[in-house]
Amino acid sequence: MVDIDYLAFLENILTDNRKEKFLKVLENRTKHFTIVVEDIFQMHNTSAVMRSCEIFGIQELNVIEQRYGKSIDKEIAMGAQKWVDINTFDSITNCVDTLKSKGYQIIATTPHSTDCLLEDFDISKPSALFFGTERDGLSEEILQRADGFLKIPMVGFTESLNISVSAAIIIQNLTSRLRNSEINWHLSENEILEKRLAWVKNSIKDIKRIEERYFSENVK
After folding, report:
1. pLDDT digit string (tens) for 111-128?
2. CA-to-CA distance for 188 and 171, rounded, in angstroms?
3. Residue 190: which residues within 8 A CB-CB, separation 6 or more?
4. How far is 44 from 149, CA to CA, in rounded Å?
5. Between the chain's N and C termini, which has fewer beta carbons within 10 Å?
6. Tell me, what DSSP letter sits at residue 110?
7. Prediction pTM value
8. Residue 77 to residue 48: CA distance in whole angstroms
9. Do residues 4 and 51 both lie within one domain?
10. For residue 208, what are the domain limits?
11. Share in percent of the chain as helix, strand, coil (round to 5)
């Protein structure tokens, strides 16, 4: 549980505009959908996906680093890593099992014999949307364990989009529909408090010294 007194102490350091911005952004954050990228060779694409998550209100990005193990490109993410939760996994199995245990259905974003067009996708169920590598697409393990398949309708000669573009289109469409629905997609009260605390700490440059002073004066 979040220490409300500690949160209030830290928030008093911020401007009123900053605090109001946090609350406004958190009103539009969701974990109803979560995004997964699998072994993306070009990490600038993962950074761009993270940026789309942040812009359109997806709170969690899951990264499977089974082969490449590269780091997020902070320049391309443009600070999004401060506001989006990044969960890393060293195997597909671990990632899929973890997300299923949280109640997510596994959705592979790839054309398939039983796929669903983006505009027809049922947004009512919590879903983990998987995006594959630029070269090979999603792995066979994910395709085998997927609960459903999703594709973007295309009418041109080209049959595929860059992963960061695909993710942006799908995330914008689904989150927009979600906000116009009656589905309870918001963060819980405790999740909002946790994010307020994390974000205010990310916003204070000398946070370690301030924390030490606070706890030395208030913890008996």
Report:
1. 777 789 999 999 999 999
2. 21
3. 1, 2
4. 25
5. C
6. S
7. 0.89
8. 6
9. no
10. 1-12+22-29+186-219
11. 45, 15, 35
Name the nearest CA neighbour of 8 among 197, 207, 213, 215.
197
Both 87 and 172 in one domain: the answer is yes
> Mean pLDDT of all residues in the chain?
88
Going from the C-alpha of 8 to that of each of 87, 148, 189, 201, the distances in angstroms are 28, 44, 16, 12
- State whether 6 and 93 are in the same domain: no
Residue 161, marked binder: yes
Token pair, residue 46, equals: 């993962």
Residue 194, both tokens: 């946790």
Which amino acid appears at position 122 of this protein? D
Same domain, 132 and 203: no
Q: At which residue do the structure tokens 């996994």 appear?
A: 89
In a domain, 122, yes or no: yes
Decide if 213 is inside a domain.
yes
| Token pair 């408090």: residue | 193
Say if 17 falls within a structural domain. Answer: no
- For residues 51 and 150, membership in a common domain is answered with yes
Q: What angle do CA 73, 78, 80 make, to 5 degrees?
A: 90
Number of structural domains the chain divides into: 2
Q: Tokens representing 124?
A: 């009512």
Q: What is the pLDDT of residues 143-158, one digit of tens each?
A: 999 999 999 888 887 7
What angle separates helix 189-203 from helix 16-26, to the nearest 10 degrees? 140
Sheet with 105-109, edge to edge strand ranges: 85-89, 60-64, 33-38, 127-131, 105-109, 148-151, 116-117
Residue 119 sits in a domain of what CATH number?
3.40.1280.10
